[in-house]
Amino acid sequence: MCKNRRINAIEEESDSEDELYIGCIENQKKSENSWMVNLNLNGKNQKFKLDTGAQANVIPYKVLKLVKGDTKIIPSKTRLVTYSGEKMDVLGKCYINVSHKDKIERMEFAVVNFNAQCILGLSACEKLNLINRVMSVEKSAESILKENSDLFDGIGELEGYHHIELDKSINPVIHPPLIVEKADGKLRICLDPKDLNRAIKREHFILPRQEEITAKLAGAKYFSKLDASSGFWNIKLDEESSNLCAFNTPFGRFKFLRLPFGIKSASEVFHKAVCKILHGLNGVESFIDDILVWGCTKEEHDKRLKEVLERIRTANLKLRRDKCEMGISEVTYFGHRYTREGLKIDDNKVKAITEMKSPTTKKELERFLGMVTYIAKFVPNFSSNTAVLRDLLKKDVPFQWDDNHDKTFKDLKTLITNSPVLRYFNDTKPVKLSVDASQNGLGAVLLQKELPIEYASRALTTSQKNWAQIEKELYAIVFGCERFHQYVYGRTIEVETDHKPLEAIFKKPLVNAPPRIQKLMLRLQKYDINVVYKPGKLMYISDTLSRAYLNEFDNSCDKDIDAQVHLLGKTCVRIRVENG
User: Fold this and answer.
1) What own/partner pairs with CB < 8 Å and gap ≥ 24 does 253-256 have?
2) What fold is seen in the domain 431-575?
3) Out of 172-176, 188-192, 321-325, 557-561, which region has the weakest mean confidence (pLDDT)?
4) R_g of the chain computed on alpha carbons
5) Which residue in 247, 263, 262, 248 sits closest to 163, CA to CA?
6) DSSP per-residue string spanning 143-174
7) Tens-digit pLDDT profile for residues 408-453
8) DSSP β-ladder status, 431-437 and 492-497
9) Average pLDDT, the chain
10) CB-side exposure of 132: number of CA atoms within 13 Å?
11) Cβ proximity of 277 and 312 under 8 Å
């Protein structure tokens, strides 16, 4: 390749055929109009050209060697394509911690083996607050807000009345009021209905799990979040239910005419009402009073958003304007950050964890570990970094915080800050499950096109640690399938294992396997899996997870009983066939 040749622009053909990145490289003299900035890479300064027309970051190999640190070059099928159509292979890709002022981001770079400028693409520029969007998306959002200003005025009034179902043996009581401060400093009047809640029959309407919502977001690029104003108060109570929600004050006795906060069935009741309003619409999900709208294109997003707002208007539901976000590229919802690239940890949670001081008691340590466990699925090997801390929680171990604990505590904060992005599950693409078992734990990772969807790990019980290795490896497959049930059930999946004998066992009739193996294999009968062998050195993610397991144990008694019932049925069929 001629090193003096000017390369005007490049496009990156990602491993994922639905992604396209455009950038610009110049390796001759720098233009006077070039927008340059100094960035800190792994503690070393490097000058970058900002290219808002690029959707890929590029770094030459010779520069990478100067700032490399422990950065590894990962093999990649990515190719750079000039505007003329000429294609150029890259050495691979790498991930580097990039900081500018008070912002730190872990970013992906395409590594090239020719003389070129370091390029920072559009997405990276936005993440580091080097540029701000002040264009059509914001104008469109403001326009939508003005067109629907009536939705942000007052409290809504949904059709019909709600009746609180009670246990007939419980007599109504007058409750004391409870006043709590909201996040914005305003006061909210609630009930303290402890006795009433004991008698209320819960609504059997299941709230969605975060994984169920995330699994629908493949290809999402634009997001809006809507928040119902005084959510529960949008629902009217009938006379009988209103009398149950009476309370005493120094100024007399009052009762709620709307569904109050504090009633144990309120979340299900309101979520059910919102689901009824939004039923049949595409690209929208709700969780109690929060509504998420998304689209793969701006046009698709705006169309869906207008449909949602029209449904809300028809139902006479009201929204809080100050808590609504429209037409943005990433949004915080359900405690996570939904972005164009995938799922990330909420910045507020990262900040809360990184600002926590070193624990001084077991209670404070439990609180810290509880927070990091919530984001365990983002980090493939963080459990190994908590082992030393978990030892302090043992009953027979006194709480003595030393330098080793403090180092582990700080390292864990750094690990969380640099956690990877989890890709959205795409039900049109093949699914791969990579599993492994070590002496003490199990590890599993769900993959699509070699990109992580979710990580999982768990510890083995004392008795399970004594199992033969083949049983542990098979149990790792069971654990992975059952943990990711909603993703793998009903579809053909490839399961990677580094235990060669398992590949042969799955090709033989179930009844020929030893009883203990049969019991585990029966738990897999509802899944369509193709077990393939892969050397352990090539399965670094699941191998690491199995050695960096979480201390969580499952109660598999019911599953074992179910497996034994199936085994008995299969054995009876075999005996009947053999005896004619």
Assistant:
1) 253/174, 256/191
2) Nucleotidyltransferase; domain 5 (3.30.420)
3) 557-561
4) 28
5) 263
6) HHHHHTGGGGSS----SSEE---B-TTSPP-P
7) 888 888 777 777 778 888 888 899 999 888 877 788 888 888 888 8
8) parallel
9) 77
10) 2
11) yes
Do the strands 325-328 and 492-497 form a parallel or antiparallel pair, or are they unpaired? Answer: unpaired
- Find all residues with CB under 8 Å of 336, minimum gap 6, and list them: 210, 214, 343, 344, 345, 346
The tens digit of pLDDT for each residue in 21-48 reads 445 555 545 555 568 888 888 778 888 8
Residue 437 in contact with residue 502, Cβ under 8 Å? no
| Residue found by looking up tokens 């006479």 in the block | 316
3-state secondary structure of 205: coil
Full-model pTM: 0.58
CB 26 within 8 A of CB 19: no
Tracing tokens 């305003």 back to the chain, one arrives at 186
C-alpha to C-alpha distances, 368 to 5, 169, 327, 389, 435, nearest whole angstrom:
55, 43, 35, 10, 28
Q: Hey, CA dihedral for 101, 106, 107, 111, is it positive or negative?
A: positive
Whether 434 and 542 have beta carbons less than 8 Å apart is answered as yes
Sheet holding 343-345, edge to edge: 330-333, 336-339, 343-345
- Whether residue 18 is predicted with pLDDT greater than 70 in this model: the reply is no
Q: Is 237 helix (H, G, I), strand (E, B) or coil?
A: strand
Helix (H, G, I), strand (E, B) or coil at 192: coil
Question: Which of the residue ranges 137-146, 231-240, 296-305, 367-376 has the most confident prediction, judged by mean pLDDT?
Answer: 296-305
Tokens of 90: 């890259």
For 126, phi then psi, to 5°, come to -70, -40
Confidence category of residue 478, pLDDT binned at 50, 70, 90: very high
| CA nearest neighbour of 375 among 356, 355, 347 | 347
Got the DSSP string for 34-92?
--EEEEEETTEEEEEEE-TT-SS-EEEHHHHHHH-TT--PBP---EEEETT--EEE-SE
CATH number for 10-127: choose from 1.10.760.10, 3.40.220.10, 2.10.25.10, 2.40.70.10: 2.40.70.10
Residue type, 77: K
pLDDT, tens digit, for every residue of 275-319?
Answer: 888 888 999 988 888 899 999 998 899 899 999 999 988 888 888
Amino acid at 229: S
Q: Is 545 exposed, middle or buried (0-12, 13-18, 19+ CB in 10 A)?
A: buried
- CATH number belonging to the domain at 138-340, selected among 3.30.70.270, 3.40.50.720, 3.30.360.10, 3.40.50.980: 3.30.70.270
Strands 103-112 and 492-497: unpaired
Handedness of CA 268, 269, 274, 275 (dihedral sign): positive
344-417 classified as CATH 1.10.1760: no
